[in-house]
Amino acid sequence: MKHTAHTRVRYGETDKMGVAYHAHYLNWFEMGRTEFCRASGKSFSTWEAEGIMLPVVEAHCRYKSPLLYDDEIEIETSVTKLSKVSVTFTCRIFHADTHRLVAEGYTKHAFTSTDGKLLREGNALEQWLKDFLSDE
Amino acid sequence: MKHTAHTRVRYGETDKMGVAYHAHYLNWFEMGRTEFCRASGKSFSTWEAEGIMLPVVEAHCRYKSPLLYDDEIEIETSVTKLSKVSVTFTCRIFHADTHRLVAEGYTKHAFTSTDGKLLREGNALEQWLKDFLSDE
Amino acid sequence: MKHTAHTRVRYGETDKMGVAYHAHYLNWFEMGRTEFCRASGKSFSTWEAEGIMLPVVEAHCRYKSPLLYDDEIEIETSVTKLSKVSVTFTCRIFHADTHRLVAEGYTKHAFTSTDGKLLREGNALEQWLKDFLSDE
Amino acid sequence: MKHTAHTRVRYGETDKMGVAYHAHYLNWFEMGRTEFCRASGKSFSTWEAEGIMLPVVEAHCRYKSPLLYDDEIEIETSVTKLSKVSVTFTCRIFHADTHRLVAEGYTKHAFTSTDGKLLREGNALEQWLKDFLSDE
Q: SS3 for chain D, per residue?
């Protein structure tokens, strides 16, 4: 399963080169994950309220083409790896008008309790995510 | 009492106009408050650990002159108003090389408990801040 | 004329108090202005391409109620003051579900050329904004 | 050659988990590169003024241990790969008090002109960086 979210490049997300600053792409990846969960039937804030956190343990992004202020982007999110203790979301960002791929990357997350302890024995969110991985 | 902190404009804090984006000045005000507390003998994180939070209830800034990437700035912070339930920090930002005033403003904060309840009867942080106000 | 834009509080926009950090409201004000211009028939990026910039010379915000991660917000934007050399946008942020006003403020902008010179004699954007002010 | 810069985690850089949000590490990497250049004798803003830009084409970070508000960090930066058309900076972030490695990663940058064209034939910044790579 893939989910596509939309947003636009904010003025404050540009830098002096006149293009979107690279760190903000990680925020867009996060928006993608948030909307992926909502579209899948259970918001990420609900998972957190139930005691499962997803701290990022690794992040990667390749930047292929610059984005300008006010450009509309599509954020395509999918689950690409899953184990008892971690999940990887892969994200591709497209320029909405041209459908050109402008960036792609992933974030790997640990499953932890609210006090930061690794959940080693599997958990309800991991079970739920299995369905999305089996769609790939 | 006034305290001066130093930082530099980061690349990601500039925008497509080539100058520091206006919202980041509020982050610099926050750095000023943090360093004000540390210089005064008790870090703000310690106050929070003791159960006193300072959510912002009002913020204001006048921008007088632009800042460029890598400009070094001085952040001058003082306490300018204090009541049992709120405190106002005033902040002036100077270009470090020219000593020109580039922005000034303030943030007003409520004293609350960690669960967000207003502390109406005075508190240890308010008592401590009184000394700084009496210096003005 | 008033225009209402929508967005959600991102994870990275929260802070250790568990609520949206105050500086990000200025980014939402900026989203509101961007969408105000687009809804009014001419995008702000077009105005910039035509050589008119709107650097912020003053910003103010009152925070009335906290926002949480993933809260949907409505950003209501209007033009409230206009002169030959500056324009003020007023912004009110509502919690989308409860319609509660959570913050309100304004930003005052100078009209400048792309090289930062104040446009003293009036300009095309100022003429265009006049219509919105006369709607109030 | 390695260079170490220092900063502290700002309040606005924390998130609702109570730790530094992962995207901000890329801003710290950028601070590291900026200070690396300054310490090496020529500021990055000078290189840009001379017409050489370094847009990020790839970024990667592994997060090993969380950082809290006000934690002081050390940002260790070095040049680890260099070609005629790109340079890679490797960055390690340490908790200043404990000297524990909390994150490590890299950013790969293209050499471009101010209008975004790839500089294919080598350039003055590339020549200058060669010395740092030969130190490794």
A: CEEEEEEECCHHHECCCCCECCCHHHHHHHHHHHHHHHHCCCCHHHHHHCCCECCEEEEEEEECCCCCCCCEEEEEEEEEEECCCEEEEEEEEEECCCCCEEEEEEEEEECECCCCCECCCCCHHHHHHHHHHHHC
**0.90 exceeded by pTM:** yes
Q: How far does CA C23 lie from the centroid of its chain?
A: 14
CA angle A85, A91, A94 (to 5 degrees): 175
Provide, as residue numbers in chain A, all residues whose Cβ is less than 8 Å from the Cβ of D61. Answer: 58-60
The C-alpha of A76 sits at a distance from chain D's nearest C-alpha, in angstroms, of 19
Q: What's the order of all strands across the beta sheet hosting C56-63?
A: B2-8, B72-82, B86-95, B101-110, B56-63, C56-63, C101-110, C86-95, C72-82, C2-8
A27, C45: Cβ pair inside 8 Å? no
Strand partners, B76: B4, B92
In the block, residue with structure tokens 């969380």: D66
Is B12 in contact with D27 (Cβ distance < 8 A)? yes
Tokens of A92: 């591709």
In angstroms, the CA C9 to CA C34 distance is: 18
Cα atoms in the Cβ-side hemisphere of radius 13 Å centred on C134: 6
Contact A88, A81 (CB under 8 A): yes
CB-based contact A76:A32 (threshold 8 Å): yes
What are the start-end ranges of the H helices in chain D?
24-39, 44-49, 124-135
Q: What ipTM goes with this model?
A: 0.96
Which residues on B lie below 8 Å from C24 (Cβ)? 23
CB contact set of A127 (below 8 Å; sequence gap of 6+)? none
Identify the pLDDT of residue D5.
98
pLDDT band at D135 (very low <50, low <70, confident <90, very high): low
State pLDDT tens for residues A8-51: 999 999 999 999 999 999 999 999 999 999 999 999 999 999 99
Q: Look at phi and psi of residue A6 and say left if phi exceeds 0, alpha if psi is from -120 to 50, else beta.
A: beta
CB contact under 8 A, A69 and B16: yes
What domains can you pick out in chain C, each with its CATH number?
2-134 (3.10.129.10)
Dihedral sign from CA coordinates of D12, D15, D18, D21: negative
Q: How far apart are CA D26 and CA D43, in angstroms?
A: 19
Catalytic residues of B, by residue number, are 15
Nearest CA in chain A to C46: A70
* AA letter at C117: K
| Nearest of C59, C19, D6 to residue B25 by alpha carbon | C59
The residue written with tokens 């008592």 in the block is: B127
